[in-house]
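Example record for the data management plan.
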Amino acid sequence: MPMLGWCYRGMTFIEPCLRAAVPVAFAMLVQGNTLLKLHNKHFKRSNDRPGFTLSLDCEGLWGMADQDDVVNAGLINDVSLQSAYAFLLATLSRSNLKATAAFVTSFAAEPDAVCDNMPIFEQMAALNPGWFENVLPALRKGTLDGWRGADFYRAIASAGHEMAWHGTTHLSLSDHTAPEALALELELTSKLLPALGHSPRTIVFPRNQVGHLRQLRSHGFETYRASLSGGFTNRLSGLLNEWNIFDRHVTEIPRFEDSWHVSPAGNFLNWPSGVRSLVPASVTVRRWKSLLRNAAEQGGYVHMWFHPHNLITAPAMKEAFEDIMGLVGKMAKSGDIVNLTMSEANEYYKTGPLE
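Corresponding structural encoding:
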C-alpha cells in the first residue's frame, strides 16, 4: 500500500495543490468525455453487454512488511482480518457476485508449511533485507498474528471465486527486482501451492508493479492486471475524481498483448483514510452508480479493486462497498451488466488465443 505515507501528509501542502488543480481536472474531465465516446464505439464492436469485475489484493501483513508502524500497531490481526473477509464474502453472496481474489502465497498457505521453508526465506532476505526485516522475526518466533490467511483462502475458494496470484511474499516483482529473487519466489510458490489445490493463471502484481513478464509467462501465468499510472499528478487527479458524481469514464476492455491477456488497471474503491476520508461514502456511491449506469446505457467495462484489509483501516469503506455491490447485483440479475472474473473477461471480450 504505497499510498499510506502520501495520504498522511499535511493538509497545508495539499490544500493549495487542490485549488490549483481544479481547472486542470475540469479540462481533463471534458477531454475524458470525448475519449469516452470514442471508447464506447470501440466497445460496441467488442461486445454489446457491459462487464463488471472485482479484483481483491489479499495479503494481510505481507503487503506492508516494510512498514514498521503498521506491523507493530496490531490493528491488522487475525480477528480483524476474519471480520473483513467474512463481511466481503457475505456481501458478495447476498448479491450473487463473484470476484478474482489474488492471494499472497505465504498468506494463503498453512503457517507450518511456510515455516518449513525458512532456508528459502533466508536466501530471499539476503537479497532484499529491507522487505524481510519484519518477516523473518515473525516466522522464527511463530508470532504470525496478521500474517496467516489460510482460512480466508479456503473460504473464498469454496465460494467459487477465481483464485489468483499476488506474489509469494508480496516482494515487488518489477523489473528492478533481481531475477534471482524472482526465481526464489517461484521456487517457494511451487512448494506451497500444491497443498492449496489451485494453480493460478492470473496475476495481480504486488504493489501494482509489473515486471519479469517473459519469465512469468513461461511458468504458466496468462493474465495480469495492468499497473496504475504513478506520480503525484496522477494521484492528485485520482483524489479529485473521487468527488465526480457524474463520472462516466469506463475502463478500457481487456486486451491481448505480447502473449498475455492484460486486464485494465481499473478503479480503486476509495479508501477513506487520511485526505481521502474527506470524501463521504455517499459521494463514493454516487460516483460508482454513475460509472455503472453509464456502462449499462452506453457500453463499457468497469473494474473495481481494493485490499480487504482496507476495510479494517477505514471501516467507513464498508458502507460504500455494500451499496455498490447491491446495485451491481441488481444490474447483473436484470441483464444490464455481466459479472466477470478477470480470466472470464478474456473469453468474454475475445482478447486473444486461450490455451
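Summary line stored alongside the record: The first helix runs from residue 3 to 7.
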